[in-house]
Amino acid sequence: MAAASLDVLCREAWGAQPPGDGLVEHVIRQLTVHHSAVVLGDNRHTPARLRQHQQHHQSQGWPDIAYHLGVDRRGHVYDLRPAGFRGDTFTSYDPTGHFLVLAEGNFDSEQPTDAQLEGVARAFAWGVGAFQVAAATLTGHRDHAGTSCPGDALYARIEDLRARVEELATIGVERADRCGPEAAAQVTAIEAGTA
Question: Which single residue of 6, 47, 53, 83 has CA 20 to 30 Å from 178?
């Protein structure tokens, strides 16, 4: 059976600023899903929302956007912070060793889409292979800190996600970073609502 694919839009494609100083190297030991806790509305807003997240996080003194990969409601995956560097959090847990995937939206008040869940699963399944981490380590942010993140609706799907991650990891997931004009055109299409 052929490996599954994970197409990842490069940072430059969604308009990321360069990271600041202070990135801390770490070794991935587990998988953790987050949500942005803000209703996305139209999926066209995702690239702008990611730029807002990065600006806000850097304004807090963090070197970059807090998460490693992001997934929108149509399942598009975005490269955020390089996975070799520890993420950041507004809560009390230490994200050292966590591979952080952000599902864009507020899943205390809306449902994740099937495409988004599949994108999240593929992101984590790629992480299983890339970092030699078990799918069973997949948890929600709330398992580590006093927060509702990743929202009730997404947290209720954790067992389903683990099962899908395990299934995908068994066949393998090949990551393809999409950069340059092709990726810029895809982001333009996302912002236009045609992708």
Answer: 53
